[in-house]
Write a structure and sequence with these properties.
alpha+beta; 12 helices
């Protein structure tokens, strides 16, 4: 199902993963919501398995007591049965590409992705799995973008199975990073990883804050600055400061490529305190000046 506008809140209030009452409940369908809005709010009390992503613009998602920003470079995964608040408040139209999976489809496709050929031959029609995705923002890789672009080329079920499998691989890759954290107990390792996920999401959601710092991130996850710095660097192989800079540079490149925002203003939009600070950083990353980069992209298009 391809929708070009969001359902009304009264419909969303009735959406369930498993229908118990045909009179009041509506089963979550397989759906892609490709809507354009400048203002929109909704509250979901029982989510389907959902992937929230944007083709243009950004929005806020409040989930698990965290306020997250989803932009063109990121996507967020929500497990079935979760709740969240979703808000678009922008001067320019925000174009979403949100994916929702019917629970039966999700369970069967996930079971097939998680089990071996031998297990699937032995129990081909099973769908039991206790796998839980980690609630966090992820960066859109080229592979993820390629699958998104294939939506109009593949059959819907093929597309949905592919995007679920890719999301699973991304989630498992993130989970393996926690093994980089030295800890005597697995429970400690898991808890530290959870806090690093929160810190990473905070960076993606607040990179435009010029005062974003290691101290602020450490406070956000209730850790000392030194303990946080050491743990984050162990898990992600770069320091929090380097991570923040990389996110800002990626966003700056996107703004240079897709908008006509003046270069000086781009610097402030991505969190640099001074407009001139962006020039040497971008020149090093792009191997050319921001102006030359923008001109070449424009000529190519």
């Amino acid at each position: 199902m391809h929708l070009f506008q969001f359902p009304e809140q009264k419909i969303l209030d009735r959406m369930k993963n498993i229908v118990h009452s045909e009179v009041t409940d509506i089963e979550w369908p397989n759906a892609v919501v490709n809507a354009k809005n400048t203002k929109y709010e909704k509250a979901i009390h029982e989510s389907s398995f959902s992937i929230f992503t944007n083709e243009k613009g950004s929005l806020r998602l409040n989930s698990n007591k965290r306020d997250l920003k989803i932009c063109e470079q990121t996507f967020y995964i929500s497990n079935p049965y979760e709740s969240f608040n979703y808000e678009i408040d922008s001067q320019e139209s925000v174009e979403t590409f949100n994916i929702h999976l019917n629970y039966n489809f999700y369970a069967k496709a996930l079971y097939a992705s998680l089990n071996s050929n031998e297990q699937l031959l032995e129990k081909p029609f099973d769908s039991n799995t206790d796998y839980v995705f980690t609630n966090q923002l992820h960066v859109k890789t080229p592979d993820f973008k390629r699958i998104i672009l294939s939506y109009h080329e593949d059959e819907e079920e093929v597309f949905l199975a592919q995007i679920l499998t890719k999301s699973l691989h991304v989630d498992q890759k993130e989970k393996r990073k926690q093994l980089q954290i030295p800890a005597a107990k697995k429970s400690t390792q898991k808890e530290l990883a959870r806090r690093m996920y929160i810190a990473k999401d905070y960076i993606y959601s607040n990179y435009s804050n010029a005062d974003l710092s290691v101290k602020l991130l450490a406070e956000e996850v209730s850790m000392s600055s030194f303990h946080f710095l050491r743990t984050f660097t162990k898990m992600y192989k770069i320091s929090p400061y380097q991570y923040i800079k990389a996110v800002r540079v990626a966003k700056a490149k996107q703004l240079l490529k897709d908008t006509a925002v003046p270069i000086n203003e781009v610097a402030f939009l991505v969190g640099f305190k001074e407009a001139t600070a962006i020039f040497p950083i971008l020149k090093k990353q792009l191997e050319k000046t921001p102006k030359t980069f923008r001109t070449e992209i424009s000529n190519f298009e």
